[in-house]
């Protein structure tokens, strides 16, 4: 039995995991991202707004006196490891390799998503939509999405790059809304595809239950959905995802280990909305 793997094979396998990981990350591209960070923290800058002043000839220029604040993302190390004997044969079957690639990439992608979810949920925004919007103790509905839009609009948040994250249970309720499922109000054919891609200016993202936490539900069956602008949250990485394959004699197997180091933080609470939905 061979216990060595060529460097070229490890490189190919690593590239396959990376490609699959990029596809499995649901929240990729929904935040400000910084790669190649040095050190254990990264500070995302937030520049305040100012008001242009009327200029009077021969008078001193009045500066805007913009406020500069920072939000710090702290790096944490993560790995997704699995012992496998699929490399012990002379020729690794593609299907077996693809299954291992998928398992590792999905684990990494889910963890990266959870960093963003936790940052958004922990940002402490004052912009909230209660579960009594559109009725008493309601699940996700058009009125709640419209309320989230109004809150962001009132803060002057740009209309582009807005995202809405909900659970599969919330999406099922949303799809039952007349304004969503009827061709008289919506041409997106939501019922045909089984989900909503965009609505009221939000790009919708749906996820199910996740061992990492996902969108948590409390004892009252209330789940908090999230709406945000891309610049309201930041994700920093000081070690991008990489994969190592090493033979462990004690296990008589290869240890396949994908790892990364990253951290996320809410940058601007005025660009984050929490929407409470009561599930049945």
List descriptors.
280 residues; alpha/beta; 4-stranded mixed beta sheet; 31% strand
Task: Describe the 3D structure.
It contains six helices and twelve strands. It has helices at residues 7-24, 94-121, 142-154, 168-175, 178-181, 190-193, and strands at residues 32-34, 41-47, 68-74, 76-84, 128-129, 162-167, 198-199, 202-207, 222-229, 233-248, 253-266, 272-278. It has a six-stranded mixed sheet, sandwiched between helices. Helix 1 packs across helix 2. The chain is globular, with a radius of gyration of 23 Å.
Determine the structural class based on helices, strands and strand pairing. Answer: alpha/beta
Order of helices and strands: HEEEEHEHEHHHEEEEEE
Radius of gyration: 23 Å
Number of helices: 6
Query: What portion of residues is helical?
Result: 25-40%
- Give the overall shape, derived from the CA principal axes: globular
Give a short summary of the structure.
With 280 residues, this protein is α/β, with parallel strands linked by helices. The chain has helices at residues 7-24, 94-121, 142-154, 168-175, 178-181, 190-193; strands spanning 32-34, 41-47, 68-74, 76-84, 128-129, 162-167, 198-199, 202-207, 222-229, 233-248, 253-266, 272-278.
